[in-house]
Amino acid sequence: MSLSTARLDRFISEHCRISRRAVRLMLAQKRITVDGCIADEIGQRIDKFSKITLDDDILQANQALYIMLNKPIGVVSATKDKLHKTVIDLLDEQDVFFDGLSEQKESLHIVGRLDLNTSGLLLLTNDSRWSERLTSPEHKVEKCYRVTLKNPITDNYVDAFADGMYFSFENITTKPAKFKIIANKTTDQVNEYIAEVKLIEGRYHQIKRMFGRFRNPVIGLHRQAIGNLLLDDNLATGKSRHLTDDEVLGIFTKQQA
Ligand code: URA
Question: What is the pTM of this model?
Answer without folding.
Answer: 0.86
